[in-house]
Predict the structure.
Amino acid sequence: MSVPQNTIALVYDYDQTLSPSYMQDDVLFPKFGINPEQFWDKCNSLVKEKQWDSELAYMKCLLDYLSIDHVTNADLTELGKGLSYFPGVEGVFEEIQELCIRPEHEAAGIKVEHYIVSSGLQALLDGCSLAGKVKAIFACEFGEDELGRISFPKRTISHTTKTQYLFRINKGLLAPQDDVNDHMPVDARPIPFQNMIYVGDGPTDVPCFTVMKKNGGHGIAVYNAKDPSGKSFKKCYQLCTHAGRVKHIAPADYRKGSHLRLLLEEMVVEVADRILKERLEEGQMGRIAAPAF
Ligand SMILES: [Mg+2]
């Protein structure tokens, strides 16, 4: 059975995409007095010397560092309130809907939804000011022991498993218990890839950019124009110019009038207009001509 495919989904990576920093550096390390360099060195040695998955490595290191602090997920969510973003991030979610969706789009049921898919920590993101503005956040999660303390990784999202969440959004299977591998015909999927825009910052987003590209979706790679090393720009440039992963790159500035905002708005309007045209054509095809005299 086909469903109305009226929703446009904007899907964002978090670290370095919506925020100039890594969320651990932003709020966790200052709170618990953790030395960031030492922390990331420990993670990297687990990854490089002992072949740990990156996400499991950072989660293990966090558990080791926080073992005497009795930290709960609720504590992390509280800390998430302090997360900081690139300029314009807090306004972009509502503004895109207001500026791009015209009354005729609305009349046809066309709407915009926002999602965050991150390899960072769900509990931190749940506490941030963006949580109420997005339809869903998917990220790594800790389970808790009988005393409520974070004790073991419950879910990890790596740069490769991130693509699973694009399919979850595509199929409308957002709950963890939904099996994303269930077969679903293309016209029964609530958000086709052509209605999706993925915003990421670099090599860790390559699998998502690839899924978008293969399936007719859209991708934008963003960089931190204030990164004095220029690395942030370089990785985007590589993705766009040499690897052909994305068509568009822009500085991570989400304010009105910025290059990124112009791209996002143009893409959303183009998709909304296409959906509207399809709806109108379907209406005309479904209409039965009155008998001629
Ligand atoms: Mg990132």
